[in-house]
């Protein structure tokens, strides 16, 4: 059990924080690439899950048996797709990463409102136990709301200059905030549906093992796969944007990568290659081919030459490596979050994710990870931003403690 929890927390904090770093690097250079980034993330997670959830028969491929019926997944897929797409699309409207992180942590007020509304209309949801909120819970949510408001105002006039139109800047910024607000609403509904799903079909532990090879994978793996795989056809609605974004990244700056070839392979393929001398290599990355071999060990301008070893020289768009790292870290992040949702309630998940976002905030603002070394920190009022972040964290912790105490008292009464 300790190992399972350690793995889950490592995926959540290591994967998600690394993902935030690569996402900031991408969106700072290509702010309108949100749809393409989301599509790459969904694709890599779907491909990774195919081997666990699809089997080949004499009639072709088919899905393995599921622990949860398809209908609850279809509802979650639509909500999850819009949440992911809207969160990444908001970067095109000049939302600083710091504001993006803190604003997404303000989902408690949405969850409380939706829980209050829907608890009166159904007896199935697990949230029925929270249909009446204590004063501590309400106060904590108000603190979170105040923190989100302060954070939003801390960058209410971003990227202004003497030549910029303040009205236009404000309108663009408010559009981005509206997109993030809509994403929070969809995320709140997603949490309700997931609570209903797991309360109906069980919340199995991550450490459970199948009795035989025909048993379906654990629920967290199944949920992660279907939420991403079933959403892929929905990207047809933004196919034109995907093509435009892919072309913009392909036509952007080019980066050169040099990879050493093992000596045994170098000795095998060298006789069939004509390796040019260093002076013949192009100095401009855009003037070179996509793939080539050279004797130079580090870069086209390096003076080091090893006559007995080859180096593979790749010319790729500068955004290719960040996108690859972003999709891989998103896979780890999604695995950690989905493992977490099957172990604890959505409230505890919210608390852990808020702490994770606080770590990402520190890495972004304090250490500058994700930004270029010569890039000035985001144009925000740092005092107001940190005050808002502290209030969000304080309110979330207070809400969790108040809910835990309330549940403990309820168990004693029962």
Automatic annotation (TrEMBL):
Enumerate the InterPro entries for this protein: SCL35B1-4/HUT1
Q: Recite the UniProt keywords alphabetically.
A: Membrane, Signal, Sugar transport, Transmembrane, Transmembrane helix, Transport
Question: Could you identify this protein by its name?
Answer: UAA transporter
Q: Where is the signal peptide?
A: 1-18
What membrane topology does this protein have?
A: Multi-pass membrane protein
Membrane-spanning parts: 70-91, 97-118, 130-152, 172-193, 347-370, 382-402
Organism name: Collybiopsis luxurians FD-317 M1
Q: Which GO terms describe its cellular component?
A: endoplasmic reticulum membrane; Golgi membrane
The primary location reported for this protein is: membrane
Tell me a Gene Ontology molecular-function term this record carries: UDP-N-acetylglucosamine transmembrane transporter activity
**Compartment(s) of residence:** Endomembrane system
Say if the entry is tagged with keyword Signal: yes
């Amino acid at each position: 059990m300790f190992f399972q929890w350690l793995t889950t927390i490592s995926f959540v904090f290591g994967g998600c924080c690394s993902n935030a770093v690569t996402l900031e690097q991408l969106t700072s250079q290509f702010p309108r690439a949100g749809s393409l980034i989301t599509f790459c993330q969904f694709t890599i997670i779907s491909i990774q899950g195919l081997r666990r959830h699809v089997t080949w028969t004499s009639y072709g491929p088919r899905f393995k048996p599921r622990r949860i019926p398809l209908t609850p997944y279809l509802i979650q897929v639509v909500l999850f797709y819009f949440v992911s797409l809207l969160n990444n699309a908001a970067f095109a409207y000049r939302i600083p990463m710091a504001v993006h992180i803190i604003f997404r942590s303000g989902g408690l007020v949405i969850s409380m409102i939706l829980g209050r509304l829907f608890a009166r209309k159904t007896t199935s949801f697990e949230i029925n136990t929270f249909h009446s909120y204590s004063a501590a819970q309400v106060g904590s949510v108000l603190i979170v709301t105040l923190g989100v408001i302060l954070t939003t105002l801390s960058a209410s006039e971003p990227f202004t200059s003497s030549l910029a139109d303040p009205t236009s800047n404000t309108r663009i910024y408010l559009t981005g905030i509206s997109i993030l607000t809509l994403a929070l609403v969809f995320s709140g509904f997603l949490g309700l549906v997931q609570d209903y799903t797991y309360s109906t079909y069980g919340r199995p532990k991550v450490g459970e093992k199948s009795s035989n090879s025909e048993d379906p994978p654990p629920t967290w793996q199944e949920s992660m796969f279907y939420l991403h795989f079933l959403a892929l056809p929905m990207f047809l609605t933004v196919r034109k944007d995907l093509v435009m974004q892919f072309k913009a990244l392909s036509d952007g700056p080019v980066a050169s990568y040099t990879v050493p070839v093992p000596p045994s392979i170098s000795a095998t393929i060298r006789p069939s290659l004509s390796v040019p001398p260093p002076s013949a290599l192009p100095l401009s990355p855009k003037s070179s081919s996509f793939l080539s071999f050279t004797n130079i060990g580090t870069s086209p301008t390096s003076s080091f030459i090893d006559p007995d070893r080859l180096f593979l020289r790749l010319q790729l768009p500068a955004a290719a490596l960040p996108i690859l790292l972003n999709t891989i870290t998103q896979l780890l992040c999604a695995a950690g979050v989905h493992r977490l949702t099957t172990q604890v309630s959505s409230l505890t998940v919210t608390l852990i994710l808020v702490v994770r976002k606080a770590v990402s905030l520190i890495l972004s603002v304090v250490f500058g990870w994700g930004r270029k070394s010569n890039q000035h920190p985001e144009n925000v009022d740092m005092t107001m931003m940190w005050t808002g972040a502290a209030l969000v964290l304080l309110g979330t912790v207070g809400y969790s403690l108040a809910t835990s105490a309330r549940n403990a008292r309820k168990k004693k009464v029962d």
